[in-house]
Amino acid sequence: MPVLVMKFGGTSVADLARIRNAAEKVKREVERGYDVIVVVSAMSGKTNELVGWVEQTSPLFDAREYDAVVSSGENVTAGLMALTLQEMDVPARSWQGWQVPLKTSSAHSAARIEAIPRANIDQKFAEGMKVAVVAGFQGISSEGRITTLGRGGSDTTAVAFAAAFDAVRCDIYTDVDGVYTTDPRIEDKARKLDRIAFEEMLELASLGAKVLQTRSVELAMRYKVKLRVLSSFEDTDENSGTLVCDEEDIVEQNVVSGVAYSRDEAKMTLISVADRPGIAAAIFGPLAKAGVNVDMIVQNISEEGRTDMTFSCPVNQVARAREAMNKTKDAGEVNFRELVADTDVAKVSVVGIGMRSHAGVASTMFDALAAEGINIRVITTSEIKISVLIDRKYMELAVQALHDAFGLENAA
Ligand code: ADP
Ligand code: ASP
Ligand code: MG
């Protein structure tokens, strides 16, 4: 039988009625002749609640215990989904990550999938089971401990299963009916895209568009998984939603395809560090070791052998970054006067493959922000994106201004 993977996110399994609604969609696919692997998230809000409990208990928590706690939300929905399907006379069974076993690295809270042996699930399909319900977001390390794949990781579980089982498609059911030119929650003129190229989706995801986890897009690209995003609240068919596909499969290419934002950024500046060879390594090595995800980096002009080094990181990693830097200072490895943290910034980015061949995107972007009186703190660019760090209070305004400036309300 051909295998189809269907993933339901938190809002799609938020209560028993929604689980039933999702189960009906699954049943329809079983009736079309598929063996279905369903990947579920925790009920919406659940993972945040669990993370909150961990942080309240232990601010600089042991990541192994964080994973033990935060993975539990998916166990509940997997079992409930299997039960709901059974009540509908669909033969179904649930699997937690360790039961598959979905093997991962030991990088707790950000583990990478290493292998998904098929034997257990294949055997059940051979015995007549029609639906394997898999708890998303979680796996098991070679030390035998539960791991999680990073926030939004159920998307990655789904794509990894689609690759491992040669699925005909991986359908990501969520609370929007596809991938939009920007988050439809903050720009009502946002347009749904019928298709988006893997590379653009990869950038949008990594720059904050949480509709797909970045790693899921990477995996889909690498293993040629047919990946689709669609609504769990509407009637859908083979043409619904947004298909994430190769660049060559898109006829009309926009210069800019989308605007992404990331709200929870912090800008950190090390004031007056020695400007000498090895200083960047001495700063960013310990930060990486402490698990700080450094994003943008700017080294300011040097004066009398000293300089300021600015970097950005997620706002919830400021304490970790500070601790790591104070340790290197105490150890005499990096000498700085002060570490200043600005925790009220956001990152806004424009993304588009067309940027490779069109000049002028940066100036359009900076003009649009200037016209709104928005000050740019840091800029970074790559071949197909431009990102700026700005005051968080202007984030929505910036997204809307850029959406307008690039004419995205007419995108298709
Ligand atoms: P799920 O719980 O189903 O995984 P998420 O909340 O993780 O859903 O992702 C869906 C959300 O992503 C949407 O509700 C929307 O607010 C947000 N989003 C951000 N950027 C985009 C975009 N470009 N297109 C569609 N949705 C987006
Ligand atoms: N429940 C996890 C989270 O909220 C994983 C997911 O939903 O994809 O991040
Ligand atoms: Mg998600």
From TrEMBL:
Molecular function terms from GO: aspartate kinase activity
Cited Pfam families: AA_kinase, ACT, ACT_9
Gene3D superfamilies cross-referenced by the UniProt entry: Acetylglutamate kinase-like (3.40.1160.10), VC0802-like (3.30.2130.10)
Domain spans labelled ACT: 268-339, 350-412
Catalytic activity: L-aspartate + ATP = 4-phospho-L-aspartate + ADP
Domain of life per record: Bacteria
EC number from the UniProt entry: 2.7.2.4
UniProt cross-references to SUPFAM superfamilies, sorted A to Z: ACT-like (SSF55021), Carbamate kinase-like (SSF53633)
Keywords: Amino-acid biosynthesis, ATP-binding, Kinase, Lysine biosynthesis, Nucleotide-binding, Transferase
Recorded metabolic or biological pathway in which this protein acts: Amino-acid biosynthesis; L-methionine biosynthesis via de novo pathway; L-homoserine from L-aspartate: step 1/3; Amino-acid biosynthesis; L-lysine biosynthesis via DAP pathway; (S)-tetrahydrodipicolinate from L-aspartate: step 1/4; Amino-acid biosynthesis; L-threonine biosynthesis; L-threonine from L-aspartate: step 1/5
NCBIfam families to which the protein is assigned, alphabetical: asp_kin_monofn, asp_kinases, PRK06635.1-2, PRK06635.1-4
UniProt record similarity statement: Belongs to the aspartokinase family.
Record protein name field: Aspartokinase
Taxonomic source organism: Rhodovulum visakhapatnamense
